[in-house]
Design brief:
Layout: H1 4-12, E1 17-22, E2 25-30, E3 33-38, H2 43-49, E4 58-62, H3 66-75, E5 80-81, E6 91-95, H4 101-115, H5 118-127
Helix pairs in contact: 1-4
């Protein structure tokens, strides 16, 4: 089970990450571009999902493509999900209470790699094969 403290610690281990907040909650950015963020369920989400609305802390993370998004959801639908509002958006939602720390680290790193400047991402990959 992961917590917001775990998200913050793991995100800040990545190069040039800044943690902050906006009107929606917590967020993590690399070079002023968000890659992970708090995403509570809103009224419209609850209306659309009904009884299937997940409860608990929800993290949004960017993914490289819609195929990657579908792959994550298919690999572990108890942890990863989406909502109609995100239908064509390259991001996936994560139930923090169900994700392992190892998987959280991987998802945050992948999200960071999607949004980091290319040279910074390449340097990171060279240093962390």
């Amino acid at each position: 089970m992961a917590t917001w403290d775990d998200v913050n610690r793991l995100a800040l281990e990545l190069p040039d990450v800044v943690a902050g907040t906006d009107s929606q909650g917590l967020k993590w950015e690399v070079h002023k571009v968000h890659f992970a963020y708090e995403r509570p369920m809103r009224k419209r989400d609850r209306e659309e999902l009904g009884d299937a609305t997940p409860e608990g802390d929800i993290l949004g993370v960017r993914v490289a493509s819609l195929d990657d998004k579908l792959g994550l959801i298919g690999s572990n639908p108890d942890v990863f999900f989406t909502i109609p509002h995100y239908a064509n958006y390259p991001a996936v939602l994560v139930l923090l209470e169900k994700i392992s720390l190892e998987q959280l680290r991987e998802v945050l790193t992948d999200a960071w790699l999607c949004r980091a400047p290319k040279r910074l991402a390449a340097r990171y990959l060279e240093e962390h094969p």
